[in-house]
Every structure is written in C-alpha cells, then in structure tokens.
Amino acid sequence: MSEGLEVIGTVQWELLLCQLVCWVSCYFCIWKGVRSTGKVVYVTALFPYLMLAILMVRGVTLPGAWQGVVYYLYPDLSRLTDLQVWLDACTQVVFSYGVVGGTLITLGSYNKVTNNCYKDSLWLCLLNGCTSFVAGFAVFSVLGFMAEKQGLPVDKVVQSGAELAFIAFPQAVAMMPLPQLWAVCFFIMLFMLGLDTVFAGLETITASVTDMFPKQMCRPWRREIFLIIFCSVFFLIQIIFTTQGGIYLFQLIDYYAVNGAGVLFLCLIECVAVGWAFGAEQMCDVVERMTGQRPCVLFKLCWRYITPLICTACFICTFLNYQPLTSSHGYVYPDWAYGLGWTMSCFTVVPVPIWAVVKIWTINGTFKERLLVLWYPARDPANSETNEDNLLNEPEMKITSVSFPHTIYNENEMN
Question: Where are the beta strands (DSSP E) in 20-174?
Fold first, then answer.
C-alpha cells in the first residue's frame, strides 16, 4: 500500500493478472446468454455450499472455536440502542437479497409466465437467511480460534470489511494443519461467489441494452461483441485498483458509490411504483393469475406501508448518522475525495428524478393530466382480462417476445 490516495504508485502485476482472469471468466460465463449461464450457475452457486460446509466443519473442530460461536450467538442487547446497527442490518438485507439491482427481474424474465414466482420468492428468502446463519458459524469459529492463539477477545481480533476476508481469514488458515488445503477451499469459494455476483450483473446490463436496442442487439454475434467491448473497457478502467494506492480508491467507492442510502432510495421508489402506481391489489391479481396462488395480505402491507416506511426512515438516518470515511490504519482522506464520493453517491439516485422530469416534459396535457397518465400503467380496461388470459395460453416463445426482446435472442440461440 502507498501512503494514501494521492500516491497511486505502481501497478501490481499479480493483481492485474488476477483481474484479467476474472473478466475473461465472466465473459465466457454469459457470452451465450442463459444457455451458458444456466450451466455455469450450477457450479458457481452449489460449489460454495460444499466449501462452506467443509470450512464450517473444520472451523468448529479448532481449539477456541466455541469462544467464537458463543460470541456469534449470544446477543449484546445494549447494541440495540445503536442506530448504526439498525442501518447496517437494513442495508445488509437489501444487498444480501439482491433487490433493486435488476438481477432478480432480469433472470426471472426468462421463466415461463406460469412459473410459481410466489413460491420461488419465499424459498429465496428462506435459503438466503439460512445460508447467512450457517456461514456465521464458519466465520466466527475461525475468529474464536484466532482469538485463542493471539490471547485477545473475539471483537478485538479483526474489524469487519475487506480485511476479514483477505487478511484475517488467510492468517487463520495459515495457523491450521494443512493450511494450503484450507486456503484453496476458502479462496475457490470466494472466487465463485464473486463470479456469480458479477456475471449476474453483466447479464442484467446486457439484457437492458438488448431491450433498448432490439434491432441491433438481436442480430448474430452482436451480444458477444458488446460483451467483449464492455468487459474490455471495465478491465482497463479498473487497472487503477491494482496499483499500490488502489485500495484507497476501492474503499472510497465501496463506502460512497454503493452505500446503503442510494439502494434504500431505489427500494422506496420501487415499492411506491408497485404498491401505489401499479397497485398492490392489481399485483396480487396478476400473481394469482400466473401461479394460481394469491399472495397473503402481508405482501400488500409491505408493498404499500411497511417497506416504504422502513426505507424512508433508514434513508434519512443514514445522513443523520453520517461519519466521514477513514481507513483502518487511520488515514484521513482529502476533502476532494469526500466530494468525489458524494458525487458517486448521487449518480445512483439522480437518474430517477431526471427520467421522471423527462417523461413529464415529453407528453402532452396539463401538469395534472401528465401526472395522471404517468402514474397509472397503460392498459385497455375493456380487453385487459381477455388479453392477459390469452397471453397465459400462448406458447412460451410468444409470451416472452411480447415484453422482453432479450428473451427472444436467447430463445433463438437455444433453438
């Protein structure tokens, strides 16, 4: 590491090669659309579970592991009065479940219209929560082992963040018997998790571009060419992260550009759009027509009231509880870096009101009429029931081609 953000230093060629491997892997994971992604995800999604189970079993058999497990399971009720704990919990849930990133919507668009998305959403929540709970045993058992080795309390062993994965855990692995074996297991798991996240995001961006420019992107090899250009550009941009001062820039982006405030704002907007503009009752009707099951009243309460209120409260409290970023080594960022960080934060939020203003400006009528037109979804009341019933009885290819050009491309590729 260099002395600070002002000193970029030289490129670390080992990191540069690793970054190249990551982008090449991402490209070949999704270059043929869901045909390749669907096969790769069996490995990238299931293999980490195997590695997690192995690391958990090994972790709980280490000396001092029980100390870490007790620290993990025994709550410190005094922390409930700490506002930051609630903010971290809220943003962690949002990030962990992958909401508002577009990934769930994009991957869900490849399903049949009659796919039981209601059941899938419940399974997603259950599996995600259980995975996080089990992963805690793997992490804190190792931290308890480190605490015993170093003669420190568990909460003093390491801070949360990137250091936990890339410094503390490797140190703990080095203390175990057969350290190379456990290091390979841990970093393969970490690589698979990261790869899964990145190529799902890439698929979202590619599908969005395909929907915006269907005539151009649905031609042969256009998707592959777009992905090569996209991956190459971002590889070049991210070379700065592989420098000696790159970690400072990484922390700045991690703290500001993808912070909880922007994501919570987008959660609020989506809930307002679904619960009030489209209508919670109409959403339940559509889900029932698709799956044969009507969502319980709790869903409507969440869409309309509970989730928007929580997101609004946490969004406001994020600014009230704001603390400027400092590195774990006590480095204080220059003022221009904080300005850059807040600028990046705005880029997450600003497109929403800008797009709203553009839509209001480009349609005809009085201001009130424009708002009414934009607030409600476009539909033909006389034929809406008939059209939706017909859609459910059409072949899958015709259903997907109605709304999603990117699904047409993938269907044609698989055929």
Answer: none
Q: Residue 309: helix, strand or coil by DSSP?
A: helix
C-alpha dihedral, 183 to 188 to 190 to 191, nearest 10°: 140
Separation between Cα atoms, residue 372 and residue 131, nearest integer Å? 44
How high is the mean pLDDT of the chain?
Answer: 84
Distance CA 303, CA 311 (A): 11
- Kindly compute the dihedral angle of the four CA atoms of residues 30, 36, 39, 42, in this order, to the nearest 10 degrees: 0
SS3 breakdown of the chain: % helix, strand, coil, rounded to 5? 80, 0, 20
Instruction: Among 163-167, 170-174, 216-220, name the one with the lowest average pLDDT.
Output: 163-167
DSSP H helices in 151-279: 162-163, 169-175, 179-212, 214-217, 222-237, 246-252, 260-272
CA 278 and chain centroid, separation: 24
Distance, CA of 146 to CA of 172 (rounded, Å): 6
- 81-82-87 Cα angle (round to 5): 120
- Region 401-406 average pLDDT: 56
pLDDT digits (tens, 9 = 90+) for 111-146: 888 889 888 888 989 998 899 899 899 888 988 988
pTM: 0.80
Nearest to 115 by CA among 297, 293, 302: 293
109 phi and psi angles, rounded to 5 deg: -70, -15
Any residues with CB less than 8 A from the CB of 327 and at least 6 apart, and which?
248, 251, 333
